[in-house]
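Batch manifest line 564
LIGAND: p-coumaroyl-CoA
JOB: complex structure
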Amino acid sequence: MSVEEATWVGNSRLVDTETGSKYDPQTGVYRSSMKLGDQYQIPTLPDLDVATFVMSQFPPLSENSKVALVDASTNAEVSYGQLRRSVESLASGLYHALGVRKGDVVFVLAPNSVMYPTICLAVLSVGAILTTANPLNTALEIAKQVRDSGAKLGIAASEELEKLKPTGVPAIVIHRSSDEKLVSVEELVECCDLELPELAKPCQKDTAAILYSSGTTGVSKGVVLTHANFIAIITLLRWSVDVTAAANDVFLCFIPMFHIYGLAFFALGLFPSGVKTVVMQKFDFGVMLKAIQAHKISNIPAVPPVILGLAKYHDPRFDLSSLRRVNSGAAPLSKEVADAFRYKFPGVELRSGYGLTESCGAATFFPTGEQSRTRPASSGVLLPGFYAKVVDDKTGLEMAPNGKGELWLKSATIMQGYLSNAEATSATFSADGWLKTGDLCYFDEDGYLYVVDRIKELIKHNGYQVAPAELEDLLLSHPEIIDAAVIPVEDEEAGQIPMAYVVKAPNSKLAEGQVIEFVASQVAPYKKVRKVRFISGIPKSAAGKILRKDLVSLSQTQVLTAKL
Ligand SMILES: CC(C)(COP(=O)(O)OP(=O)(O)OC[C@H]1O[C@@H](n2cnc3c(N)ncnc32)[C@H](O)[C@@H]1OP(=O)(O)O)[C@@H](O)C(=O)NCCC(=O)NCCSC(=O)/C=C/c1ccc(O)cc1
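JOB STATUS: finished
ARTIFACT:
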């Protein structure tokens, strides 16, 4: 597959601007009524890999000096030409110097940096499989993911290397180290330039990444995504950048590249649009305001807590007049927060989108800011090529517009399944291949999606997934806890916080603070249980399933009672 063959012809906007999702009463299926122009068709050539696909659409060689990435803390710039060379050199180093081969899993443990996209594109170029993790995860959590994914090599920020050591997996660091025995990505980028043999190249059906998500129930599982899944979402992303007129925007990246939202946008998907992205290593509100002013940022893919922060705490000493578009994803954006943001920033288009790790990122979006302004509670319309059903959980019937039920999805971006977990995979797909999202939704008559509630057992803290089952397993490992259930409690700033109901062993003197500390010492900060209530028994169904809704109602009553 040559680079030229993968390149789109021209860049004119052949976009059908009819929007909405059409409902077919015969089949009960909603589908996008928007059409992709000819130049945005999802490539079907079987021997195409996502790295070749992305790099084939970099700006032409005559524009090699165009800036792709800027480090927000040092202002160091990476041009598209440098990015291409770094990817090719690192891929060569991974293959020839480190022996990484097609199908090997490479574990990336690092915060955001301008090097992160190079690492992802190089790993994918050699046909290795990317697995990523939050560097705030504990050594125990990382060891579990290393084991589950079968990682063969680690690529870590130097401060995270210690967490990989106990796993025994060989690891390299990102920046050159004073320890001469440590190989670094920087050295490989500088030294290696041997060609990759044709045989090593991956193709569309090969696995590209294993990202972790708890899905609708249970603990975190490896979501298997292919090159084809990424090629499809990246095609749609490029189309959406064009259709939302964002092609000349300067983007700000603080959402993490180790999750699908940041990975699909910033580590892979925005480069075909030729945009410039300013990268923050981690989120800091003040640093974000400074970066917007200094780099004249116009577009921020964000999450609700950041939008709330901008609406509430924006410091007028900063000039944010460059801002044009802010996206919200990863967690529900309330109408109140959206209204408050629009009041503070009347000239900025705020749009919500809906997506999942299991759908390789976005499934819905808003083509225009106006559509979003008039429907502040909606998450937009289906992306082209997506099909949806809204299924009543009791009757199994497909719901017409305004009828609520579980959202089911089909598209070229949907995962292959959960790694080595046939049971969870078959529970998540219907017999005829629909992905059951675990979200309670409806479409209005114009085909706009509204996410009403979560059916799945999941807590979203700052847009990060927290699996109740994982915290319950931990709580049950405490010698003085005989039963436990973890539920979400609404929180203005973080969206939700995890709260535990705990049954103590007889005569135990366990206190709330001890339970909080016990969990906190073993999990990443965003998973901490932040409230504990003791209870005599956990309510369960006849089949032994925790009745979480009853506990959520109980917690709300307890809050009200405490207020009186
Ligand atoms: C920017 C946020 C909202 C806030 O950042 P933060 O204020 O730094 O807070 P953190 O949650 O990152 O963690 C801070 C915690 O870590 C701690 N911490 C800090 N550094 C340290 C340290 N080195 N050591 C140990 N502790 C530390 C720190 O003390 C603090 O602890 P605590 O106060 O107890 O919460 C951040 O949480 C964030 O980026 N969240 C986004 C998560 C995210 O991208 N989720 C996407 C999942 S995928 C998905 O759903 C996709 C949807 C999608 C939807 C639509 C689309 O179009 C496409 C996709």
